[in-house]
Amino acid sequence: MTVAGETGRPSGRRQRYRARAATAVLALVIGPALLAPAPEPSPPPVTAAPTPTGGGVPTPTQTGTSGPSESSAGPTRDRGTQLYLESCASCHGPGGEGSQRGPTLIGVGPASVDFQLRTGRMPLTRVRAQPPHRDPVFTAPDIEALVRHVDSFGGGGPPIPRVGPGDVRTGRELFLANCAACHSATGAGTALTNDQVAPALDRSTAIEVAEAVRVGPGLMPAFPGTVLTDQQVDALAAYVGVLQSDQLDRGGAALGRLGPTTEGLVAWVVGLLLIVLAVRWLGTRADR
């Protein structure tokens, strides 16, 4: 009994010593870790920026982006080139050299191209010997772009005339002397040979009249500056404007501007027919 009591005291004391020693060791190991400050977040890695070469604007290769290169995009076409290739080149050739379907445009000049486009005669809707006057297919800016493009083919040609106010009396004399034989004295137009016609001038503007005088479209002869001066062309355009007005139709029906001879013949035939009908009606009443 005495031995057991003596041996039990030292054993409990040693266990307490061991527990305290283990706690101390554990505190020495874990304590610094718990008391140590939290680590600061490290900054993200810095990527070196690309260095432009030969200028301030980086190239797609330097920026890492992809895009069409200049060679693959091709040259930018202006409006006149685009319209010409779409609407004219199939007949007149890519460079205006002409083909079996259309004449050359080299040397025709801006006035001729502008006249054909603004009167709607070009481009053709179907092949015919003499295209009629109709509304233009292109807008005014597109016509101007096409005229510039065709003029770039070279060869000269009459420029687009500038029309000013003209003397109507002088224009009448010039019209009767140079135009009435084909277009009639009233500008109503007449038939020519080979299924050709001299068109009516009722829709022609002053600039179209001046261009036709300088260019001579179809069978019409051209009148260069050595034949008719700019002032005379202005006078002709002014008189055509008078023909288009109602100033020449006073006192009677115009009958489509067929001219005084034709209008007088129609009046004579109609009057004679009325007289015959009246005489016949009177004779029928006398028989009763």
Contiguous helical run count: 12
Order of SSEs? HHHHHHHHHEEHHH
**Number of distinct beta strands:** 2
Radius of gyration (Å): 49 Å
Could you name the ranges where pLDDT drops below 50 across 5 or more consecutive residues? 1-8, 39-75
GO molecular function: electron transfer activity; heme binding; metal ion binding
Domain Cytochrome c: 75-154, 166-244
Region (Disordered): 35-79
Biased composition (Pro residues): 38-47
Structure, described:
It is a single chain. The chain contains twelve helices and two strands, in the order αααααααααββααα. By secondary structure, it is mostly helical. Among the domains are: 82 residues, Orthogonal Bundle (Cytochrome Bc1 Complex, Chain D, domain 2); 87 residues, Cytochrome c-like domain (Cytochrome Bc1 Complex, Chain D, domain 2, Orthogonal Bundle), CATH 1.10.760. A two-stranded antiparallel sheet has the order 1-2. It is elongated and about 175 Å long. GO terms for molecular function: electron transfer activity; heme binding; metal ion binding. This is Ubiquinol-cytochrome c reductase cytochrome c subunit. InterPro entries: Cyt_c-like_dom, Cyt_c-like_dom_sf, Cytochrome_c_Oxidase_Subunit.
